[in-house]
Amino acid sequence: MAWDFETDPDFEEQLAWMRIFVREELFPLETLTLTPRQLARALAPLQDEVKDRGLWASHLPPDLGGGGFGQVKLGLMHEILGQTPYGPVAFGNNAPDSGNAQLIAIGIESTGREDQREQWLAPLLAGEIRTAFSMTEPGAGADPTLISTTAVRDGDEWVINGHKWFTSNGSIADVLVVMAVTNPDVHPYQGSSMILVPAKTPGVEVVRDISTMEDPVEHFGKFGAHAEVMYRDVRVPAGNLIGREGDGFRLAQQRLGPGRIHHCMRWLGQSRRAFDMMCERAVSRYTHGSYLAEKQTVQNWVADSLAEMTAARLMTLFAAWKMDKDGPAAARDEIAMIKFSGAKVLYDVIDRAIQVHGSLGYSTDLPLEHMYRAARAARIYDGPDEVHRVSVARHTLKRYERVDVPSEHVPTRRAAAMVKFANLLDEVALEG
Ligand SMILES: Cc1cc2nc3c(=O)[nH]c(=O)nc-3n(C[C@H](O)[C@H](O)[C@H](O)COP(=O)(O)OP(=O)(O)OC[C@H]3O[C@@H](n4cnc5c(N)ncnc54)[C@H](O)[C@@H]3O)c2cc1C
């Protein structure tokens, strides 16, 4: 019987190294205010170390330049890396670059366009270029069938017009992956495509980095910011199409499945960090005659948080396992479930950790307030939680049929049982 929760010893060794590396090399960087150039300099030797251990860009199969880990291993890795925003960057698998590399790789697989490997995939995997994923528009978010950006074929070029926003890393990207309608005469599922647009192409205007709850101070050109981008008569070669014309939604699904597993495991890494802070505070803070650890409410928060994190972790690794075994389509409901439940666990655990720290938790002397603001977005990006709930409920309810009498109606079941066991009941009655 194959039902195993163990990690193979070689990979466990790598995970153990990652835990120490992240804590000792990356956590300290968080406390410094570095310019993008200073940060790149600080990260370069660390990235070399990661490459030496064979852990760089491990999200792709080896023939496509990656480490060839399945989703379970990647999930375990992301749980460690997700503790700090610098983790995925140091390991060459940060969003949106990792997902975009996957997109290009899937496109090459389906079209055999080897030139795209050299032009885009290789420099992306080497960390030489940065990308962004430009799908959401001010008028089309949770429902991407409403996208109005168009790409019209003109000879050997695509001409793109549209208005996007929340393009993460859009202001620092070298290349933007743009989702556009290429055939308005069919359903968007068949009529949308993804096209690679170099950021310096005439007509691309990065209007601004949108100030957000996580990062309310106005700035431009910051890693992790979310850009508003105008595309006005942007001309790119026809060969910049990813996959085939009309593949946009299919590609988006393939990209988002693994991405959600990585997000959820990163959230669990963040949750664990907040949880550890909460427990440390609980055993350290004395008030009203006892340590916080001895107050029942705090004990409830500790126990509930641990149970919720454990449940989310098992669900996420199960979704990863199912995806490795049967592919992203088979794991669709599991992926949707971890998206909304994982986002809630993250939010709740950080919230409790702040509460246990009181004013200190609310202050910028601890990372909790920033984690809390960032966590709020998890309920919105990658599809709002409500959309995932609707999807899970719809698939689940399809498996049920309408009835006049509930299947578990006791009087009805009793009548049926009396018929089924009539002989037995007669014998028992005769025995008195
Ligand atoms: C931090 C962050 C980073 C992002 N990065 C990117 C990126 O890199 N590239 C990109 O293209 N986009 C990105 N996005 C955009 C993200 O994908 C969208 O925000 C998301 O798809 C929701 O779209 P919307 O914000 O337009 O909300 P809307 O579509 O306006 O939805 C608003 C709300 O309506 C409700 N709702 C919507 N549909 C349903 C439904 N079917 N049933 C019930 N309730 C529903 C939900 O509560 C939802 O929150 C990012 C967003 C955030 C916050």
Which labels suit this protein?
Butyryl-Coa Dehydrogenase, subunit A, domain 1, Butyryl-CoA Dehydrogenase, subunit A, domain 3, alpha+beta, single chain, 15 helices, 14% strand, Butyryl-CoA Dehydrogenase, subunit A, domain 2, four-stranded antiparallel beta sheet, 3 domains, four-stranded mixed beta sheet, binds flavin-adenine dinucleotide, 432 residues, 10 strands, globular
Portion in helices: 40-55%
The domain count comes to 3
How would you describe the shape? globular
CATH topology of the largest domain: Butyryl-CoA Dehydrogenase, subunit A, domain 3
Oligomeric form of this entry?
single chain
| Mean pLDDT across all amino acids | 95
The H-and-E topology, N to C, reads as HHHHHHEEEEHEEEEHEEHHHHHHH
Q: Compute the gyration radius: what is it?
A: 25 Å
Largest sheet: 4 strands, mixed
Q: Strand order within the widest sheet?
A: 1-4-5-8
CATH class descriptor of the largest domain: Mainly Alpha
**CATH architecture label of the largest domain:** Up-down Bundle
Could you give the count of β-strands? Answer: 10
| Head-to-tail CA distance between termini | 48 Å
Beta fraction: 5-15%
Bound compounds, each kind once, are: flavin-adenine dinucleotide
User: Could you name the ranges where pLDDT drops below 50 across 5 or more consecutive residues?
Assistant: none
Query: Number of helical segments?
Result: 15
